[in-house]
Amino acid sequence: MKKKSSKSITTLDEILDKKYGKRGAIKREKWEQEFEIFKIGALLEDARNKLGITQEKLAEKCGTNKSYISRIENNASDIRLSTLIRIVEKGFGGQLKFMLTI
What we know:
Layout: H1 12-20, H2 26-51, H3 55-62, H4 66-73, H5 81-91
C-alpha cells in the first residue's frame, strides 16, 4: 500500500465529494445549482464595478430598484431570465450568451 505524500493536493471535487457526495447525489446537485446562482451575482457585480456604475444607476437603466440589484449580487434573490437579459443589455450595453453542458 502506497503512503500518501504529505505534499499531495486535495482537489475541490474531492472536497465536495466528501462533504456533499458524488455528482448526481441530491445534496451535491443542490450545492452545484446554488453555486451557479452565486456566480451570476458575482459576475454582475464585477461587470458593474468594471463599468464604474452604482447599483442605483444600474437599477435605473434596467427599470428595477437598487435593493433588487443588491440582493442579486449578494445571492439573496433568484433572478428571472428576463431580468438578467435586461440588466446585461440595458444596464451594461452587453450581450448575454449561454452555454449548456450535458
